[in-house]
Amino acid sequence: MIRRSVLIVVLVVGILSPASQSLRFELQSGHTKCIAEDIKSNSMSVGKYHVVNPNEDYPLPDSHKLTVRVTSSHGNSYHSSEKMEKGQFAFTAAEEGDYMACFWAPDHSPPITLTVDFDWRTGVHAKDWSNVAKKGQVDAMELELKKLFDTVTFIHEEMFYLREREEEMQELNKATTSKMFWLSFLSLFLCLSVAGLQFWHLKTFFEKKKLI
Prior knowledge:
The protein is an alpha+beta fold. It has three helices and eight strands, in the order αββββββββαα.
């Protein structure tokens, strides 16, 4: 009971904590880098990316382009763009699992290194609250209440999701334990059978030699 309470507190703190605004990474020409995100079904997901200009005093070189693909664990494509300096995507996950955002930089001679800024948000963090405030014409208190309500809803759904994953892991552990039991039993049976055959072979050999 104490462990479950601690787990709930950690989950709530993790969800209510400010999400990382941006991920910055380097990508060499001719190479691919993929980033995975575990997303539940029916969850909103939004992402933005752009190539950082190495010299702000000049326009971004034509060689600094990206090809981006966002796919689900089942191979379904949710976003695709080729040779772009920047872009964005938004979708509602139809299936749960790991979603992959893969970035590829075209070959270039001599090789170059691109710096990419990537912002990927899911769930309650994916909602544009400033846009909600403008459209709904709500005051600050009502906006905070809307945020809190969505956060609590998200936590509630996340708890059910974690419970389902826990049940799946328990079933997998039971199946694995059962398989290991039968494998151990089969290994023991084979060892005893081999030992019996060896004993029978030695006994027959000694009897033929009239040693026993």
